[in-house]
Amino acid sequence: MTIGAAGRTDQDALASVEASFLTLRQISKRFGEQLAVRRADLDIVEGEFLTLLGPSGCGKTTLLRIIGGFERPDQGTLTFRGRDLVNAPPERRPFNMVFQSYALFPHMTVSENVAYGLRAAGVARSELRTRVRAMLELVHLDALGERAVRELSGGQQQRVALGRALVNEPAVLLLDEPLAALDLQLRKQLQDDLRAIQRRLGTTFVYVTHDQEEALTLSQRIVLMNDGDLIQVGTPRDVYERPYTRFVAEFVGETNVIPCEVVAVDDRGCTVRFPGGATWPLRHFGDSDLQAGHSALAIVRPEHVEITDDLHAPFAGALQETVFLGPACRHVVRLDDGTPIRVLGPAHGSTAIDARVGLSISSGEGVVVPEESSKVGIGDAPQET
Question: Contact at 8 Å (CB) between 20 and 78?
Fold first, then answer.
């Protein structure tokens, strides 16, 4: 898929991706006066790990529940392999859902919980035993099959919920912040397991989280949402390195936001002028129409800022803080106008606090975005591997 000159998705290329496996068009949902989802267009590719990412209240869980059939949209279409699912109840959709609360049957054993859906579907006993055994092995619970679920830890219970949702071989697995209640170490372990399970089974995962690191770790594509809008869709690398707006840049990772003025525009990006008078070439993505003379914002990640002895660099200021992180150091340099610039650099070497230093942007790095933008960017679908 390609993005046209105006930043919009090439619809012909989009239509060729997996022949509309799961397609949302103009989906909107309102709760009273609150608009939870606004005209969402999204194509979900078969076999991908897609994450809906955004702050609390942005509409990501509502969109997931609409896909699952637990909420009905006020308008729009939802099709699966060409079949309209808008009016289909959850049990008539080839999807399963994993909830943050686990939603297990406490009076049943681990095996009985995992087998529940197969029994309801009338699967023969011999096949049921084989599939349950294989699923328990996949989620690393094969030694706990006869254990009561109330005796398990939170992480183990979430593995049971995952096994129960996957054993029926759904076309799509929906996961609503399934790791949010777990401690950090266990959450990271289960992230690795989720990624491995998804790759092994090839099941399409649609995952909801507000944790940007989790989204970057797990996803093939990320849908970044805010205030009910799909702000940007793309691979983790694209969302991190090619933000279309200030919101995207600040929500995904740490960044420096520096006011500037556009002085020239070409097909590779923009040349901007910073308040101190220095000019610098920056890349530009999305479909915002930046023109010479426009006020804009330079987006520069801390790892792309370099401290130098050259006080004629694009920026200069006083070193305010240095924090040793082991393999790297985090520095804060305060510019003459009071703007703090964060730098992530090598741990070797030292500069005295309050010393005057110059700051340069790594060649080819940095992005320019408009001061304000509500544009939506749709990134490329993942390629088959």
Answer: no
The more confident residue out of 352 and 68 is 68
What single string gives the DSSP state of each residue in 47-99? T-EEEEE-STTSSHHHHHHHHHTSS--SEEEEEETTEE-TT--GGGSSEEEE-
Shared domain check, 261 and 234: no
Non-local CB neighbours of 67 within 8 Å, separated by 6+ positions: 22, 24, 78, 95, 172, 174, 206
d(CA 172, CA 196): 16
From 246, 263, 293, give the residue that closes a domain: 246
**111 plus 221 within the same structural domain:** yes
Using the 8-state DSSP alphabet, how is residue 283 labeled? Answer: B
Per-residue pLDDT averaged across 154-174, rounded? 93
> What average pLDDT does this structure show over 10-34?
73
**Statement to judge: residues 98 and 174 lie in one domain:** yes
% the chain with pLDDT above 70:
91
Average pLDDT for 171-176: 96
Residue at 156: amino acid letter: Q
pTM: 0.87
Do 89 and 200 have their domain in common?
yes
Residue 235 predicted with pLDDT over 50 = yes
Q: For residue 290, what is the domain's CATH number? A: 2.40.50.140
Q: What is the pLDDT of residue 289?
A: 83
Answer yes or no: are the C-beta atoms of 212 and 356 closer than 8 Å: no
Determine, yes or no, domain membership for 166.
yes
What is the distance between the alpha carbons of residues 6 and 4, in angstroms, rounded to a whole number?
A: 5
Counting beta carbons within 10 angstroms of the beta carbon of residue 202, is it exposed (0 to 12), middle (13 to 18) or buried (19 or more)? exposed
pLDDT score, position 343: 95
Q: Determine whether 211 is exposed, middle or buried from the number of CB atoms within 10 Å of its CB (0-12, 13-18, 19+).
A: middle
Q: Cα dist. 93→59, 119, 336 in Å?
A: 21, 18, 60
What average pLDDT does the segment 354-377 reach? 81
Print the domain residue range for 330. Answer: 255-370
Do residues 81 and 253 touch, judged by C-beta distance below 8 A? Answer: no
Instruction: Pick the last residue of a domain from 246, 267, 294.
Output: 246
Give yes or no for residue 12 having a pLDDT over 90.
no
The CA angle 210-182-324, to the nearest 5 degrees, is 75
